[in-house]
Task: structure prediction
Amino acid sequence: MNARIAIVEDEPDIRRILADFLTKNGCTVSEAADGLAASKLLAEEQFDLILMDLMLPNISGERLIAELRTHSDTPVIVISARSMLETRLEVLRLGADDYILKPFDLNEVLVRMEVVLRRTGAAELPDTLTVGGLTVYPAENRACFGDKPLSLTAKEFRLLLLFAEHPQKVYSKANLYESVWNEEYCYEDNTVSVHVSNLRSKLKKASGQDLIETVWGIGYRMKGEQ
Ligand code: CA
Result:
């Protein structure tokens, strides 16, 4: 991912882990270790995305986001302890675009960042994604297996796009729901399972294979290599 990222986080270990990981993944990273440094950094430099802790010395993350929103639409992902933040609604009310709870999984951070960057138009998808015999054309909202076109609903297509972007990655139902429906996943219902199951049978019909597999107790993943 080629993006300029600001990491606002006062815990040195977490900051370093995020910075190393994002640099390794092609990002240009700037860091701020407290609220004052963050305020200065965000006023002086432009970023594609900001990862923002809430509990910070000097100026809180909430205030930094409010300050930022007076002059900038730069997407913000809040990274916070569960006790600080209960719902997606609170995060959106703060003016942030998404949130990740600590402790976090680094790959999850990357996926969330990609989703937010795409939604805000800062990240472009490639023209085509291929996994095994499957080809997905993100801009055209279509996909085919070999030369057989797949007839997918809008939700099925967005699910397929996520799976195809990161084959082998296991997505939980909550992940899928929050990324595709863009709403908080608050209780176990059948929505995700039904859409995944429909997508799965369409893929199976076209390919003769089960391209999406259930990982019991966790979620789903796409089989195959990019
Ligand atoms: Ca903190």
Observations:
- Residues 129-222 form a domain with the Arc Repressor Mutant, subunit A fold (CATH 1.10.10.10).
